[in-house]
Amino acid sequence: MRALIDESVFHAKKYYETYLSEPSPAGDISLSSTGIASEPHLNLVRVLREMKDIGTQGELLVVTHSSPDGFLMKLQAGGQVSWLFEVMDKILQIAEGIRRHDTISGLPPQQVPEAWRRWFADFDPGIKLESGFETNPDWRAFVAKKFDEWFERQGRDILKLPRPRADLTDLLSLLKDVRALGFKRLEFRACQIGSVAGAMEKIAGFLNVKTVVGPSQVETFYGAIPHSGISFIADDRKLAAVLKKMGGRSFPKISVGILVFPRAFKVVAKDDAALKAFVQGFIRSKFAGSLSPLLVGGVNSVGSKVTTYVFPLEPDYKTLLAKFDSAAKAATP
């Protein structure tokens, strides 16, 4: 599987380059160092291009920012509108409007006026075509002009693209190409993207992907703690007292404690062997790389309850990821 990482998700790129793995309810993910790409700030067009480049039956892990309403990334660089769930509906509606428009020219001449009347009723109801409008000798130029104005508004006012016509044309063409792929699997590690029922299915429908996975009512976190920033306490009694007092997550059997702050981590450990045991037991089994810096990642609960941090190899991790599988849905009576 390939990965596309938003570099504004702090430490995520280094985390995946180091561990090259990610658990998933759709099957655990293995990455290669050459299969990880990144952008300073991801956008939908960049994701679509990556998917198109991977091709049919492709698989992609995307690490980015989101909320229960959708992705916080813009539709494209320089744009003003984010890739939210409601925006997906708008894009598909625009694409359908263009598809319907394109079919009109292929209809028998006597059916064309009524087809235009239905088109405006469905997509631009502010334009009223009265009965008999086709008797006006300029009617073809009129409907073509109004369609052209509608198209311009979709890119300029609805999707707020930098170059309304050109960018809208490119976006829809790219989306059409991706939807034709029958992409196999798309994984997201993005805060709360799967919190709303049906969210993963909606993404799957928008992109025509067979399987989509993303965090449910949890946020993702990544951290890089330099070796010099870790508190080592060799004395077992003193270490136990510190672990009991510090709060956060403690792992007494391996003599490690971790306290997570909004943008920082406090780590206490007996020695490097304890850190290695923590990484192998909770993040990446059999990991034998450098522990400087110590890279950590996982998901944490949100809401009014006490925040709980769950690491990748813990049993609860996969249960906190929402999954949509089109084959499973098709098999459901």
Strand content: 15-25%
Overall strand count = 18
Count of individual helical segments: 11
Q: Tell the overall outline.
A: elongated
Write structural notes for this entry.
The chain is of the alpha/beta class and 333 residues long. The protein folds into three domains: 2-81 and 177-217, no CATH class; 86-158, no CATH class; 220-314, no CATH class. It has eleven helices and 18 strands. It has helices spanning 12-19, 44-54, 85-104, 112-123, 139-158, 164-179, 199-207, 236-246, 272-282, 316-319, 326-331, and strands at 2-6, 21-22, 29-30, 36-39, 59-63, 66-67, 70-74, 82-84, 183-189, 209-215, 218-225, 231-232, 249-251, 256-261, 264-269, 294-301, 309-310, 321-325. A six-stranded mixed beta sheet has the order 4-1-5-9-10-18, sandwiched between helices. Strand 13 (249-251) and strand 14 form a beta hairpin. Helix 5 (139-158) crosses helix 6 (164-179). The radius of gyration is 25 Å and the shape is elongated. It starts with a strand and ends with a helix. The model has no long low-confidence stretch (mean pLDDT 94).
Keywords:
six-stranded mixed beta sheet, four-stranded mixed beta sheet, 3 domains, 333 residues, alpha/beta
Brief digest:
This protein is α/β, with parallel strands linked by helices. The chain has eleven helices and 18 strands.
Give the secondary structure arrangement, pairings included.
Elements: E1 2-6, H1 12-19, E2 21-22, E3 29-30, E4 36-39, H2 44-54, E5 59-63, E6 66-67, E7 70-74, E8 82-84, H3 85-104, H4 112-123, H5 139-158, H6 164-179, E9 183-189, H7 199-207, E10 209-215, E11 218-225, E12 231-232, H8 236-246, E13 249-251, E14 256-261, E15 264-269, H9 272-282, E16 294-301, E17 309-310, H10 316-319, E18 321-325, H11 326-331
